Amino acid sequence: MMLRVSLFAWALLAGVSTATIAPARANPADGFQLRFAPLADVVGMPPATNSDGWKRDLAVVRWQQFARDSELVGHAWSYLDRDIGRFQAAIGSDFVKTAPRIRAGVPQFVRLADEVKNQLKDAMGRSRPFVTHQDLKPCLPREDSASYPSGHATWYVTTSLLLADLLPERRERLLAVGHQGMAARVTCGMHYPSDVEAGQRLGEAAVKQILRSPQWKRFKLSVQPEVKALISPPAAGMPVVYD
To answer: Can you say whether residue 31 is alpha, beta or left, with left for phi > 0 and alpha for psi between -120 and 50 degrees?
Structure first.
């Protein structure tokens, strides 16, 4: 007969204190959904082909390709990954060591905006600049997804605003990082400016809904000990954050 041994029993047999076995944390955003219709209204439609907005979009992307240098390209690469750790310098503390609950919890709320963004991308079906215009050469890895609204802009705006709600003392620094994450997409020809502007509107509108939710209010209250630890500036001073 096969003997079934629980995790608790194995811990005792191995001489491990059961206090060290931490239960998996529940998703703090569980049960909350963004209202899609008002977000879609805020995002709107991309500029029509050959409209003034379309011409402006194309002119800006072409100018960025002409003007960018190796420093700007390297800067854009540093914002390629959508990782909340990108905001550590803005806060001046290590998320992993100081605020594991914030690091794990905030992305669960951001994911809700990301899901709306995916639906809108599929609905709009706008091609990336380098797909429609062969003279445009992106300086970041090409992506196959639609262009409008920008996923990076949505992510960076949503993340920066949620962190700013938790850490108002670092608001300007956090929003500066969010702005850089958006701008990098146009610098490297991955998006038109209107894609990024749409992602910004989506992120801002999504955050307004999130901040009113009981799920966010409970989460914000639960992480106050981590917030207090994060706002203590490092002994060497705050790192430089470029706006």
So the answer is: left
> What global pTM score does this model have?
0.86
Number of domains in the chain: 1
The CATH number covering residue 126 comes to 1.20.144.10
Mean pLDDT by 10 residues, the chain (243 residues): 33 33 68 97 96 96 94 89 91 86 96 97 95 93 94 97 96 94 91 96 98 98 94 65 57
* Domain presence at residue 35: no
H helices within the chain, ranges in order?
7-13, 36-43, 52-67, 70-77, 88-91, 95-98, 100-124, 129-132, 151-166, 171-187, 193-212, 214-222, 224-230
Query: In this structure, which amino acid lies at residue 4?
Result: R
Tokens of 158: 């949503």
